Structure formats: C-alpha cells, structure tokens
UniProtKB/TrEMBL annotation:
It comes from Streptomyces pluripotens. Residues 454-474 are annotated as: Disordered. The chain crosses the membrane at residues 37-55, 61-79, 117-138, 150-170, 190-207, 214-231, 257-274, 337-359, 365-386, 398-417, 429-447. GO terms for cellular component: plasma membrane. It is found in: Cell membrane. This is Purine permease. The keyword Transmembrane helix applies. It is a multi-pass membrane protein. Keywords: Cell membrane, Membrane, Transmembrane, Transmembrane helix, Transport. InterPro entries: NCS2 (IPR006043), UacT-like (IPR017588), Xan_ur_permease (IPR006042).
Amino acid sequence: MARVAALLSGRGEQQSTHPVDEVLPAAKLALYGFQHVLAFYAGAVIVPIIVGGALKLSTEQLVYLINADLFTCGIASIVQAWGIGRIGARLPLIQGVTFTAVSPMIAIGLGAGGGTAALLVVYGAVITAGLATFAFAWLPARVFRTVMRLFPPVVTGTVITVLGIVLIPVGLGDAAGGVGSPDFGDPKNFAYAGGTMLFILLLMRIGRQFLSSIAILLGLVGGTVAAFLFGDAHFGDVGRADWIGITTPFHFGTPKFEWFPILLMLIVMLITMVETTGDTYAVGGIVDKKVDSETVARALRADGAATALGGMLNSFPYVAFAENVGLVRMTKVKSRFVVVAAGAFMIVLGLLPKAAAVVASIPNAVLGGAATVMFAMVALAGIQTLAKVDLKEERNALVVGVSLAFALLPATVPVLFEKHMNADLSSLLNSGVTLGATAAIVLNLAFNGPAEDETPALPDAGQATAEAVPAPTA
C-alpha cells in the first residue's frame, strides 16, 4: 500500500526518466493513467455542463453530453499520444474540450433559440471547423510556419488572459445559483460556492502534489456532499439513468451548416491551434523530445480530426489540455503510453450514464465556486505569459490593453449586440473571446508585424500555461 500511495503522490518516481516511447508495466500504466484522468476530469465535464445549462437542456440530455464528451476525449487522447500515421504528436498530451469555445458556442446556441435545435447549429460549425483545421495542418511546412508567425507571446498571452477574464463572470453567475434560476443571488448559494472555493484553495495550499492536482475534483465532491446534507443537492436522476449507454453519431439530429456560426468556430479553432502548439513545445521540452514543425502539424491534425469527430459524436472542439502537461512535469513520468491508458479509462467512463448523472446533479453554486477558481487560473496563465513580453514597449502595451477593452465590450454594452445588430452578426461578434483574440492578432500585425521566428516564441506560451494551471482549467 505504501508503494501505491507513493506512486499516486508522485513521490516514488520524482527522479523517473521513463523515455517517452517506453511502455510501462500494466500496474504503473493503470495508476499513472488514472491520475491523468483525475487531474483532467473536472475540466473535461464542466464545458458540457456550462453549455448545456445555458441552452436549457434537460438533465437527461446533459448526461448524454457528458458521456459523449468523455467518450470522444478518450479516442482523441489515444490518437494524439499513440499516433496514426502522420496524425498525432506521439507525446503525452491529453485532449479535452476547449474553454475557448464556451462563449462562442453559447452565443451560437442562444442565437439559434436554445435547446437541442441549437446544438445542431453548433455541431455543424464544429464539424466544419474541425475539418478545416485538419486540412490546414497538411499545408506545406513553409506556409504552415508563416501562419504560425502570427502568434508571438504578446498575442497568445492576451488571448489566454481574455479567455479567463471573459469566463470568470460565467463562474460567478453559477456561484449565485445560475442566471435565471428562482434562487439566483440567494446568500446560501454564495455560502456553497465560497465553501467550495475555500476547500479547493486549502487543498492547493497544504496538499501534496497529487492532491493539489485534483483539488478541483475534490472541491466539487465536498461541496456537493455539503449541499446534499442540507437538502440542496438531489440525485433522483442518478437512479433513473442507465448503467450502460452508447454514444451514437448525430444523436440529436442532422447538423445544420450556417456560415456565421462556422466563421465563429473557425476563429475558435485558430485560437486553439495556438494553445496546442504551445503545449506541444512545452511537453516536448519536459520529455526531452525535439519538437519541430512536423510534430506541431501532427498535433494539430489530431486536434482537427478530434474536433470533427466531436461534432459527429455530439461533443465539442478539442485542444491539448495544459494541466496535464503540468502533471507530466510534476510526476516526471514521460511515457506517452500513460496517456493512452488514460484515454482507455475515459472511453469506459463515457459508457456509464450513471456516472455522468452524478456529475449533472452538482448544484450550480458548487459548480460556480470551482469554475471561478479554474477560470481565474486561466487568466493567471495568460498574465504569466505576458510577463515575458516587454510591456514597457508602447506598441505591445497597446496590443494588450486595447484587446482587453474589446473583450469586455459584449458584457459591458450588451444592448449594442441585442438591439443594434442583426442576429447573424450578433452571433459572430457577441463574444469577448472572439473580439479580444481578433483584436490581439490584428493590432499585433499593425504595430509589430509577424514574428521573425515562431519556434522560440510559442514554447513560452505553453510553458506558462502548464506552470500556471495546477488544476483543471484548460
């Protein structure tokens, strides 16, 4: 038992030098793989929970989304780590649904009227954007490198910061009980959210490395248990859920392909390409494997294929998860086959509706407390990346400052998008992430031009993300 505890805590393998291509014994693969799942789980399921809640889906539909997400995450992670031909980086990279897509997908869904009908519009955009990303990653190396020069640290840092800042109000809304709920703003909701947040922070402050890496998950469990004891968490849907459930393609119907949502999702995938590129360089440095433009291209092909598959299997866009890059750094376990094992675990979890029903029963306030911490850590990751930028240089300062201002426009002046734009244009622009990221790219080109060489710039973005996010935030 002591040996198992040491493995789980990471203490027993702090000096491990398992090469990236080494296949570990089955027991170690299972232990380390399950650890990756624990570090990843909360970040994986929170996106379908947030999107499904915003689109007013039923609990049964939400359970299906969670199962579809986990099932597709497992397949995507195996493809990324194992590799199929020239698809997949063959590095220990976990694939998960990107937070970058949350606000745009909600905007698309609400513009389409909410409910499952809105999901069909979202899935049409996701499939198209995934195929476009896949195709982009097959461009000649010279063209590929030229495009990636558009994303120096001043852009990637701004985009990640914007992502966190825009999502924090989503977490706070849930902390208040969920926007539109009858008890929105009730002090008891803030008590649950605050208690959950305090527990997470306490675990991250005093916990060992492994305990800190799953602090979000434990916070969700602790907050839900407390809410249950006080009669505010209900698990009736768990008993009604099936033990086994199969994710089938196009479960909610035939996707709808509308050009404005597709354009919005293409912008999302452009941002996720920056994230995956940074994480690929970061994990390559950790496992001592050289990363070149072909490695990045293989990683992005896996992103594109997973995203297109996600749209078909009722899930969302995929990206390499930064927190699992951090976990590789902490445990010093470099084998990519650990991620393959984690992918197998996720596929199994994706076949268990009862497990998803438990997650769907987490009270909004508890979820909000945990989500606020995660989103704040995303913003911190962006700030840490920007710390590597010379912000005393006025041109860089303008890129960051004006982009942040654009990102706050939809939340600050919603009437502009609700009453003074047509529905299509509003669905495209009514997203702080979209406006902020677009502004960062355009302003950087205007003031600084393309980066001279993307290779030294991109690892900083991924490195900062990996180091600044000790718990699920992706």
